[in-house]
Amino acid sequence: MDDVKIGEILTPAGPKENSRREQTVRLKFWRTVKKAARRVPFMEDVVAGYYCALDSNTPTRVRGILIGALFYFVLPLDTIPDFLAAFGFTDDVAVLAAALSAVRAHITPAHKLAAKRALQDLE
Description:
- By secondary structure, the chain is mainly α.
- The chain has one domain.
- It is 69% helix and 0% strand.
- It is built from 6 helices and no strands.
């Protein structure tokens, strides 16, 4: 997946579109996590990013970047459809890695702890 496409995905949308994306992420996130858990090697970071994106103390631009990446993650039909067994989440991994790298400083120890606990509860 090229950097231009990833940049387009991670560009925060306007308030109305961001709100729509956030609602979709809230509805589909945990179902997608369960399906992708073994295919995304840094799932704990993804879940910490989810908590960071929903944290009202997170700066708006950071929330927008994370919501954009998470929205792409929960969509079943994206550049490489998620139902393709070996490759379905490879594009999602690239987008999530770029987003997490860009906002890493805003993911707090509390977000990381919440992620660790949430993933333990899924097992």
